[in-house]
Specification:
Elements (H helix, E strand, L loop, with lengths): L14 H5 L15 E7 L5 E7 L1 H5 L3 E6 L11 H6 L17 E2 L5 E7 L2 H8 L3 E6 L6 H4 L16 H6 L3 E9 L11 E8 L2 E6 L4 H12 L6 E4 L15 H13 L3 E4 L2 H6 L7 E9 L5 E12 L20 E10 L13 H19 L3 H7 L4 E2 L4 E2 L5 H12 L11 E3 L2 E13 L5 E8 L4 E4 L9 H13 L6 E4 L16 H25 L14 E4 L2 E4 L2 E7 H7 L4 E9 L11 H13 L14 E4 L1 H9 L3 E13 L5 E11 L6 H20 L5 E2 L4 E2 L18 E5 L23 H13 L15
Parallel strand pairs: 1-11, 9-10, 13-14, 20-21, 25-26, 28-31
Antiparallel strand pairs: 1-5, 2-4, 2-6, 3-5, 7-12, 8-9, 8-11, 12-13, 15-16, 17-18, 18-27, 19-20, 19-25, 22-23, 23-24, 27-28, 29-30
Helix pairs in contact: 10-19, 13-14, 18-19
């Protein structure tokens, strides 16, 4: 039974540490005798290294060592299956390992690293390394390279089947939508501190979304046992996907430490954030919709042109079209070119974010062509069944999201005629869009110890990337054990702890809290058993099923005055504490959907991590394994997704073309809300991320050299306070009984989906101008 602690808008357990500066991030760990590494980046985007002159750099003050492809330690060649067997996550660059060859594949690729006594001396030395190249032809323009693009082996759905149906439909829309390359730019740039404790043991302080994934990947590359690689990441200053894969700087830091025999710190600069740690790739999306005159859709076509680089990752922008709306025929296809830029990677709601902009814009265009209300069109074409899996959704409250959002936002006052509302020089409009993201759940373990003083401690090798994981773990345990939040210590961000999932694919909350819930329930059961079997307890002889917990004690549910404290129970048993470690395996018979390779990759690595030996103490192997047969059976019966509705009001200056979002409402169906305050912050953060996407974010490249010209936060624009209106968030709040006993679904990514579509549709309503390529800047509205 879920109590009343879960869901409360409680303050973050780590909040005080962060606002007082006591929360230590990766770059703030400074071991004794640490030295600093600074990479040398390629100044061409395609070619071969002819020579490297390190003479001046070696003579530079403080320089200790310089590594290049000629003298760097050798890494194990990449093999995805072999790496996964060792519990490793995904490398950001799978087709080129750092400092292992003389080939250059993108501008900014690491071609050397300088190690020196200070960061400043390492950077100065790196500037003195002279590299000569034999250039080769580069590919940088997506339009130019599309004739050479290829269709991926997986992900093509009903190719060629929708076009004939659309062509014969009574109402048709057929347009192309474009999204640019975007970069993550979390507040905290990546950083790695590598310490070789012995020739076979390694400690890494890293800013990562997956301590276990980083442990397994590093162990594989350096030929170590996973349990001999200790990854520590207590706090992460934002990730959004770029810290989910293992990027070259981690291996470079470890190689550098090995070469000089001292701890090495490698801090990524803001400029390196643009070139070396992934990005959301550009997309060109062709969407065609067919409908009859009533608005009932007849077919949906969603084709995406995009690119990949030194990995096989590409943006699956068609995934929203696999889930939304009841079109009887849907065709979803891709073509992928190869460009000389750094590898694309997961970026908050990969696929869904650019795909929902295109699909939701097209739906608004279809509504306009039908002279129909956009919400009414969506309601008419709503489906409660996953169109491709032919399974009902585990929980379907999307129609409630539309209804509640329309009521709260004042949708009935919307004038359907574009450019009809003007106040002085300002044009106003409102628009809406649907939000969606898959609900994922992975294997997780938790160790909980209740101590004689009535406090508790929890261990799990997950991590908090700013989302509130520390807090919801404590809330879950507090809810079951009845121990006050302030008396619970949570330990995460350490690879030697019991296995937890990576923070990606919106899976952390449901996975970790499911393990904590099950472990706490088992521990409470044992404590109750000790009490009822102890003649010295006031609970002696009572049925354990009638016992509940509060204030670090057990009590009879129908007679609260009959109770026994944890302190007394453990004292009488001469135990300083009692602990339990339990692993929960939710799904055994099904892999995550192909449309979500991030969750699939992480599940594969987590299955193998569970087989690895663990350290002693808090990280010792869990003595209990528990499958969740009900969740496993439900996986066969249901499709798991979260849904929502986004509403935006915009104001456009008719003289300058400057768009501003003046109001925003997000209505979300994400199952049980674990903490109303942190959940609301998550959605607000996602909406702000979406405002950046639709109005300002774009990574531009010099097409002559393939170097990014949007290199810093001075020219890569992100929203600031004046760009963000008041954002109202409303949760449906109904638990999803099929995904887990706790009934929650992840929310880290759904908040951004649909935002760009809602704002773009509002801008059309305000101005009558349909902008189909992002970002929507003033020049496109003049």
């Amino acid at each position: 039974m879920i109590g009343d602690v879960i869901g409360k808008p409680l303050d973050r357990k780590d909040g005080i540490l962060k606002v007082t500066g006591r929360a230590k991030y990766a770059a703030e760990f400074t071991p004794k005798d640490v030295v600093y590494a600074f990479p040398v980046r390629a100044r061409v985007a395609s070619g071969t290294i002819s020579s490297i002159d390190t003479t001046a750099a070696k003579a530079s003050p403080g320089v200790i060592q310089i590594l290049t492809h000629e003298n760097a330690p050798r890494l194990t060649p990449y093999d995805q299956q072999a790496m996964a067997r060792g519990g490793g996550g995904m490398l950001g660059e799978t087709q080129v390992l750092p400092l292992q060859q003389d080939k250059v594949f993108y501008f900014g690729q690491y071609v050397a690293v300088v190690i020196a006594d200070t960061f400043e001396n390492a950077r100065a030395g790196a500037n003195l390394v002279k590299v000569a190249y034999a250039d080769s032809k580069l590919a940088i323009d997506l339009d130019t390279e599309m004739p050479n693009a290829q269709a991926p082996a997986q992900g093509q759905t009903n190719e060629g089947k929708a076009s004939p149906v659309i062509a014969s439909s009574e109402i048709r829309v057929d347009n192309v939508y474009r999204t640019p390359t975007e970069n993550h730019h979390p507040m905290e740039p990546h950083a790695t501190v590598a310490v070789w404790d012995s020739p076979e043991k390694l400690t890494i302080y890293d800013s990562t979304q997956g301590v276990k994934n980083c442990q397994g990947s590093t162990a594989y590359l350096f030929g170590l046992k996973p349990e001999n690689v200790h990854v520590i990441s207590p706090f992460v200053g934002g990730g959004f996907g770029c810290k989910g894969g293992q990027w070259p700087h981690i291996a470079v830091a470890v190689m550098s430490a090995k070469a000089v025999g001292r701890p090495v710190k490698l801090n990524i600069t803001r400029q390196m954030m643009v070139t070396n740690v992934g990005r959301r790739p550009e997309t060109i999306q062709h969407i065609a919709l067919g409908a009859d005159k009533s608005g009932k859709m007849t077919a949906l076509l969603h084709h995406t042109d995009t690119y990949k680089s030194v990995s096989d990752f590409f943006e699956r922008a068609g995934v929203p079209s696999t889930t939304l709306y009841g079109a009887p025929i849907r065709e979803i296809t891709y073509k992928v070119a190869k460009l000389n830029v750094g590898a694309p990677t997961f970026m908050r709601a990969p696929g869904e974010t650019p795909g929902s902009f295109a699909l939701e814009s097209a739906m608004d265009e279809l509504a306009f062509a039908l002279n129909m209300d956009p919400i009414a069109l969506r309601v008419l074409n709503h489906t409660s069944t996953d169109p491709l899996q032919n399974k009902p959704f585990s929980l379907d409250n999307l129609l409630d999201c539309y209804r509640i959002g329309a009521e709260k936002f004042g949708w009935s006052k919307r004038n359907a005629k574009p450019a009809a509302r003007r106040e002085g020089r300002y044009l106003y409009g409102i628009g809406m869009a649907t939000a969606t993201y898959p609900a994922n759940r992975s294997r997780a373990s938790a160790r909980i110890q209740v101590k004689q003083d009535g406090t508790a401690e929890i261990w799990c090798a997950s991590q908090d990337i700013g989302t509130g994981t520390y807090t919801i773990i404590a809330q879950t345990a507090a809810d079951v054990l009845g121990i006050p939040m302030e008396r619970i210590k949570v330990n995460i961000g350490d690879s030697l702890l019991p296995q937890g999932p990576g923070s990606g694919g919106s899976q952390t909350a449901v996975s970790v809290t499911s393990a904590v819930l099950a472990t706490a329930q088992e521990l409470k059961k044992q404590l109750a058993g000790m009490a009822v079997n102890d003649p010295g307890s006031r609970l002696h002889g009572h049925g354990p099923e009638n016992i509940d917990a509060a204030d670090s004690r057990l009590y009879l549910r129908d007679e609260g005055s009959i109770h026994d404290t944890y302190t007394d129970i453990l004292k009488r048993a001469n135990l300083p504490n009692i602990e339990m470690c339990l692993t929960v395996q939710p799904f055994q018979s099904a892999q995550p959907q192909e449309s979500n390779p991030q969750a699939k990759q992480q599940q594969q690595s987590q299955q193998n991590q569970a087989k690895q030996p663990a350290a002693g103490g808090a990280g010792a192997p869990c003595e209990m394994q528990r499958s969740d047969p009900e969740a496993d059976a439900n996986r066969q019966k249901y499709s798991f997704h979260s849904f929502g509705a986004q509403f935006a009001e915009v104001r456009v200056d008719a003289d300058t073309g400057m768009p501003r979002v003046t109001r925003f409402l997000s209505v979300m169906d994400i199952g049980r809300v674990l903490n109303e305050k942190t959940a609301r912050s998550q959605i607000i953060g996602g909406v702000v991320y979406g405002l950046g996407q639709v109005l300002m974010e774009e990574t531009a490249y010099d097409k002559r050299w393939a170097n990014p010209v949007s290199r810093t936060l001075a020219d890569y624009h992100v929203p600031v306070n004046l760009d963000v209106p008041e954002i109202d968030v409303y949760f449906i709040g109904k638990p999803d009984p099929h995904i887990s006993p706790i009934g929650a679904r992840g929310i880290g990514e759904i908040g951004i989906t649909g935002v760009a579509g809602a704002v773009a549709n509002a801008i059309f309503n305000a101005t009558g101008k349909r902008v189909r390529d992002l970002p929507i800047t003033p020049d496109k509205l003049l």
